[in-house]
Design goal:
The two termini are 23 Å apart. The protein is α+β, with helices and mostly antiparallel strands. It is built from 11 helices and 10 strands.
């Protein structure tokens, strides 16, 4: 997870979805009288950008009050429902998806829609109040689930870092350019919709990187979606090797889009002071 662990109960959408055992999922929320994916887990960027839809569509497309479950192999009216939902997926997922499930959740501020999707069949969760309340909180509360990654490492943690035997190789990853390239083929002219979808992709990037670069490695979130990465290793870790690793780590977000990674090497840090200086500048 990284040096600074999250407080129990403050899990991000990705952490919650992972702990819940979901394969792929996303949360459609109201955005300026439209609906769009605000939170996502194992969902590629083009699928997130394809989520923009009208509230009327959702009011007329989910016949059941609880879970609405559709399979590619369905026939008749159910088959038509399945086909209608393919518009929300990237070309890659349109060919792969076998099952999709939705639940529309009434909220004080309209409604939200939670989506599960898979190449296989889906085991549907029980609609307990805690489950529905959690989704509502993700939709409407402005909790910063990654605030710990915006803090410098306190001096009290220096003893737990392996500076005595290893130096930290430090890099900066430009997530903004990566996201813009992923979404370049998508027509997102409304600024607020574009911002919501970009943030859904960005949060997934943080989730993947925080799981990939575990302690004693560390990620730090600076302004303008620049992500700073510190790796403690005896091996020579080149810029090209990191780019190759990032392409694997973020493959589920980029999908078949071969996006370029803008990564800058910033040298070595041999003390906590040097490492925090890299994070702060």
């Amino acid at each position: 997870m990284g040096l600074l662990s999250h407080i129990a109960g403050k899990s991000s959408f990705g952490q919650w979805a992972f702990a819940s055992g979901f394969e792929h999922c996303a949360l459609f929320c109201p955005v300026q009288e439209m609906m769009a994916i605000k939170k996502a887990y194992r969902t590629d960027a083009v699928t997130a950008a394809s989520s923009v839809s009208t509230k009327d569509f959702w009011k007329g497309s989910l016949p059941e009050n609880g879970w609405n479950y559709f399979l590619r192999e369905d026939s008749g009216e159910q088959k038509q429902y399945f086909s209608n939902f393919l518009q929300f997926f990237s070309p890659d997922w349109k060919d792969r998806i076998n099952a999709v499930a939705f639940i529309k959740i009434p909220c004080a501020r309209d409604f939200i829609v939670f989506m599960l999707f898979s190449e296989k069949e889906i085991s549907l969760p029980i609609n307990e109040n805690a489950f529905l309340d959690k989704l509502s909180a993700f939709a409407f509360e402005d909790e910063d689930y990654y605030s710990d990654y915006k803090k410098l490492i306190p001096e009290s943690k220096e003893a737990s870092l392996p500076f005595a035997t290893l130096k930290a190789t430090v890099f900066e990853f430009d997530a903004t350019s990566f996201i813009e390239e992923l979404l370049s083929s998508c027509k997102l002219s409304e600024p607020e919709l574009k911002s919501v979808i970009e943030n859904a992709v960005y949060e997934q990037i943080i989730f993947y990187l925080s799981r990939a670069f575990i302690f004693p490695n560390h990620i730090f979130l600076s302004e303008n979606k620049k992500i700073k990465i510190a790796l403690f290793t005896n091996e020579s870790f080149s810029l090209d090797l990191l780019k190759s690793e990032l392409s694997i780590i973020l493959k589920e977000i980029s999908g078949t889009n071969r996006s370029k990674f803008i990564v800058n090497a910033s040298g070595k840090a041999s003390s906590l002071k040097e490492l925090n200086s890299f994070f702060a500048n």
